[in-house]
Amino acid sequence: MSAFSAIGEEEEIESEDFTPGTEPQPTWCPGCGDFGVLKALKQAMPEVGRSPEETLLVTGIGCSGKLSSYFESYGYHSIHGRSLPVARAAKLANPELEVIAAGGDGDGYGIGGNHFIHTARENHDMTYIVFNNEIFGLTKGQTSPTSPKGHKSKTQPHGSAKSPLRPLSLSLAAGSSYVARTAAVNPNQAKEIITEAIEHDGFAHVDFLTQCPTWNKDAKHYVPYTDVQDSDEYDFDVTDRREAGQMMYEVESKLYEGEVLTGRFYRDDPRPSYSEEKQAIGEMPDQPVAEQYFDEDHQWDRSYDELLDLHK
Amino acid sequence: MTENELIWRIAGGSGDGIDSTSQNFAKALMRAGLHVFTHRHYPSRIRGGHTFVEVRASASNVRSRGDGYNFLLALGDSFARNPSEGSVYGNEELKPLSENLDDLREGGIIVYDEGLIDEEAAAELNLEERAEENGWHLYPMNLREMAREHGREVMRNTAGVGVTAALLDIDVSYFEELIRANMPEDIAETNITILNEAYDAVSEQEFTHDLRVPTGDHENEQALLSGSNAIAYAALDEGCRFISGYPMTPWTDVFTIMSQHLPKFGGVSEQVEDEIAAAALALGASHAGAKAMSGSSGGGFSLMSEPLGLAEMTETPIVLLEAMRAGPSTGMPTKPEQADLEHVLYTSQGDSCRVVFAPSNIRECYDQTRKAFEIAYEYHLPAIVVYDQKLQGELRNVDADFFDREPNPDPGTVLTEDELAEAAHHESGKFERYQHDSEKGVSPRSIPGQKGGRFLASGNEHSPTGHISEDPANRVAQMNRRLQKLDSVRSELDAAEESHQTVHGPEDADYGLLTWGSQQDTVFEAVDRLNEQGHSVKAMGVGDLMPYPVAEVTDFLESVEECLVVEMNATAQFRGLTQKELGRFGPKLSSLLKYNGNPFEPRDIVEGFETSIDGGDLPDETMKYVPAAGD
């Protein structure tokens, strides 16, 4: 029995439980792809069976960062690019929480890129949703790490000279054990992928294509889309790193040629999560750190008893 | 100058075992009944370079490095680069001898390793001549040869200890015990052979010196600890079970100690990709219910600026350490300075809402770190312990039972689930984590996983439920409530039995010395000396930097005619803070500043005080005197 009684409680969970009473109406622009993420996440939660009070949603800054305002759970709206270090530590302090992090492409692949690489490498048992709209939205339309080469904006008036970042390939190389791409225009797949990602025991990265109708392109730019798992044209093994890598490269290239490919691209289910690895070498306690403070029977060691003899 | 004390300086290159040898030496003398204090001086390199450690030992309490020293064990640098024509570094092999001569007291003893520093080299230094002028006693010994003959060359340091023991009449059994406790059996026995061979070899010589080790006795069992030990143990005793960090000198020591011990205390340590992550992880762990800490030194702490502000805004409790070293930028990585004061107080955008303590010695490192945790978790704000390279590494003996305290696993101001059910909720059912009118400004807190406590923590300005809000009335209410917590902390600290401000010297003294952090006990030693010389002086060491102890410092400054502010930086940051906080006393406050990479010696402060009283220039160019406003 957890010291936190919401954890593991048997109850009927419904999508609507995740709609906040205080601020149910998002401030996103009409037609924004971010609505798709919110909807998919709300629909996924009953599927995975976790309640608002055992869920911690950590977000970064930008339109995507407001997800935690419109999703009812414990929330932490952090700073630009830093959702992952906040989220993964919460998971280490209390592995019984369902921890989800979210941010945009600038947030996760730009300013927070270092954290993305290292969180993936460590394979924390958590979900990371990146709202990838290929643009900086809230700051009014600047070129982002995933903007296409040649993309013109106020900060790149002659067009971007940079090739876009390849988020799926980067994720694979860094060590994510589940990598998928979905799109706001495909709500059924989005819900399924988010569900799978949350259920996955390891670092699950979902690159979520969210159209930005104000600064970039509207929904029709992501239509038609292909689900590679449903298509006869693509045949690869999602558990094979090499095949997954080749597929990701193709998917990333084709996005900029106007072909939208989505689906699951890699999964490594046998890989132990970071907490499991740490516990195996004796670097993490069986009882969650957070619970120790609320456990009246917990034995609190003192430096005087354990360490002072070294100094005498 | 008193000679009822030994100040033993062991000098060599990094890698010559200077640190470990000096630690054992200090511990042996502590076990022999003496009070000990160490001072480390080392370069930022793995092998070679001019390194020394001083061990000051006396029958009475020692609380500072001394003025100069009286025994040199110069091992020579076995990792020295070969001098070539035009090289800027000169003959490094010789430096452990040549670089240390200026500070050696008259009548001091020099032991050097002839195996590394030969006759020719000694002649180059005019050693014989200088020894005669200064009354030094020279004992060239072939330590290298002794070590080689009975073991391995790296054991030169043990041979040096053997020679020291013979010359000063120290019982070698103290060293033998420590060697046996710290080394595998075969290596220990080899070292013990070398120790005794060296002891016997020098015993055969005729001694020309009078200096002997002082004799003393401890009433209570003693423990030898560094500032880093005391900080880490305080954190463990406060129930801190999460640390995240990135290596950086000199903060690394605390991080290492915590990482080694946390697993067996049931905690988690994380070495992460950078200091932004380190601070953010500590926030995440704390938000989820752990008592958590992080820390760094100047450069790494700069990276923590933004998460630090997030902690203030989301009211996530957290303890951060800042182990200062000489700046700006990479500065001098292994040298102490107190120039990050303003950085620690104000870094991150917006008005600061944090607590900052600056302990001055091992005991205060322990007490104030514990207090930092208590306050951070009671008041939901970041508490910072700022210290420096000097304090983190210096070893000092403390009564062992000082640490015999109860642990404090209290998570601070957190509601239980029963209390949450009763707590004020928004009509939507949401818990009001950031309720406007809260006692002492501290609003109720819940932990993820608790029933009925869900809320949003946001770095944006937010409503009582945590939602983003730019409503002016709410903004003012939230700002005022957050800042009210600092007033509450000040009231709590003022009412506490033990103040973090320490006053030393006669109460009715005419003159004052004001300092903060690691220089305090050196200032206190200078105060004793000044009073012995007929001056009328007292000193105050300040530990609370934010919220500032206005009443205590005001009382102190009102009681003296003039006050010299002593600190290790170039722009008198603490004097500036004091004037800002008190809004007056400008014409009373002059400054003595040192920023050459070395901490003050007591005599520096005596000279600085005399300059402030008599006028004129400082005799020593390594310091700066800044007169009071209007002077």
What does this structure look like?
The complex is a heterodimer of chains A (312) and B (631). With 312 residues, chain A is α/β, with parallel strands linked by helices. Helix content of chain A is 31%, strand content 15%. Chain A has eleven helices and eight strands. In chain A, strands 2-1-3-4-6-5-8-7 form an eight-stranded mixed beta sheet, with helices on both faces. Chain A starts with 33 loop residues before the first helix and ends in a 6-residue tail after the last helix. Chain B is globular, with a radius of gyration of 27 Å. Chain B has 22 helices and 22 strands. Chain B is an alpha/beta fold and 631 residues long. In chain B, 56% of the residues are buried. In chain B, the strands form four sheets. A seven-stranded mixed beta sheet of chain B has the order 9-8-10-11-13-12-19, sandwiched between helices. Classes of the chains: A alpha/beta (312), B alpha/beta (631). Chains A and B meet through strand 2, helix 3, helix 5, helix 10 and helix 11 of A and strand 7, helix 9, strand 9, helix 11 and helix 13 of B.
- By CATH's scheme, which homologous superfamily of chain A applies? Thiamin diphosphate (ThDP)-binding fold, Pyr/PP domains
* Number of contiguous helices of chain B: 22
CATH structural fold name of chain A: Rossmann fold
Secondary structure category of chain A: alpha/beta
Please state roughly what percent of the residues of chain A sit in beta strands, choosing from under 5%, 5-15%, 15-25%, 25-35%, 35-45% or over 45%: 15-25%
> Strand arrangement, largest sheet of chain B?
9-8-10-11-13-12-19
The greatest interface between two protein chains, and residues involved on each side, is: A-B, 68 and 82 residues
Largest sheet, strands/sense/barrel of chain B: 7 strands, mixed
Averaged pLDDT of chain B: 95
Output the CATH class name of the largest domain in chain B.
Answer: Alpha Beta
Look at the structure and name the CATH superfamily of the largest domain in chain B: Pyruvate-ferredoxin oxidoreductase, PFOR, domain III
Percent helix of chain A, as a range, is 25-40%
Chain-averaged pLDDT of chain A = 96
Shape of chain A: globular
CATH architecture of the largest domain in chain B: 3-Layer(aba) Sandwich
Task: Kindly provide the radius of gyration of chain A, computed on alpha-carbon positions and rounded to a whole number of angstroms.
Answer: 20 Å
- Oligomeric description of these chains: heterodimer
Termini separation of chain B comes to 33 Å
- Tally of extended strands of chain B? 22
- Secondary structure category of chain B: alpha/beta
